[in-house]
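Sample pair:
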Amino acid sequence: MTRVVIVGAGYVGLTLGVAAATVGHDVKFVDTNNDIVTKLNNRQATFYERGLQEALDKHFGVTGPIAFHTVANLMSNADQTKTVFVVSLGTPIGKDQTADLTPIINVVDELVEWMGTKDLLVLRSTVAVGTSRKLLETIDGLEHISFCPERTIEGKALEELFTLPQVISGNSEHARTEAKAFFGSIASDIVEASTLETAELIKLASNTFRDLNFAFANLLALIANKHEVNVNELIHHANFRYDRNVIAKPGLVGGPCLEKDAYILAQSYDGPEARLLLEGRHLNENILGKAVEFLRGRLDGVETPRVLICGAAFKGRPVTSDTRGSFIFPLLAQLDAAGVRANSIQVLDPVVSHVSEEISIVHDVAGLSDRYDMMIQLTNHEMFDTQEFNDFVRARVDSVISFWPRADNPDMHHSSLWLGGHHQMGVNEVFR
């Protein structure tokens, strides 16, 4: 058993901490968010993740704090047990579209005061290439660091922490050995990157490749639409038994990783060639505009339009309550600009409970209102594939915008705009 201190108890930190506790490690959390600290000390999950609440109940004692507001609060009364410190802070993107690493630098600087020679610092946050090395060069007393990227999918994080290969690296033999021992106690396989920079780049390369693939698919959708071609048919036939092609399906591309990793990767290279990454990212960011154009045309002249938005999280499968990077927020802003009042909007989502003080959210079809002028389906939660939902839309919705049209019912409504998603020849999970 190792003492593990997780600094940053959001999605990445909390799921890793729970997985570590599951295999017997002594885990504590540090987070500046009062609500997170209070809920964790009451053994309450702070977001929906399959199996998370059950694991908190089972693997953490019912008494005593497990979360603290500062590292000092936790470590001031701690013994000298060997400790793995994991930094899992979010990496915000500034207005200049570069990662703000200041919070990470400040936390690492503070952690060094509490670290002994046998301890290890694991950097789990997504960073620009070279960040780990910069921390070693600029923070006095930091001896051992391992960059170990997070690559799990929201909704299946606890499962994937045990089944996905975990990438590790280290600046020293001690760092590599301790990181391998810690993550090897959780994961089925370990991938040892030769340098810190290699591990940093693995995370950015994985997500940016997918972002570019989705951007290409969305561009194909625009081109296909111009020439009256079914883009789903096009992509299926292009991919069918042709292993050199892995073209994705078009649609919305959101979430806390895909919305920023291309920017961070571009930050890691100062040549003009990095514009390729940014052009793809901008295309994916702007694809919602096509739906809004259709919406404006359908709602023109409607005095007080009623709008139903299906899906508030950034993805529907696996189900999650994570709204980071969700398209619901730019959509709400554009609806407001189009004159749609907040009290005329209702959201249907199985687990998300809040997006705005003014917006009503319901969790099942039974809670919906009688009639809507427009429905906008943002995610592909299984609720939206049911006959009950389909019958409701047929009877009570005038127009539909869907990024996930059902292939078995392509004519669900006479006044519709289908923008990618389901097809009888396969389903693509765009939101990850």
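The chain is about 40% helix and 15% strand.
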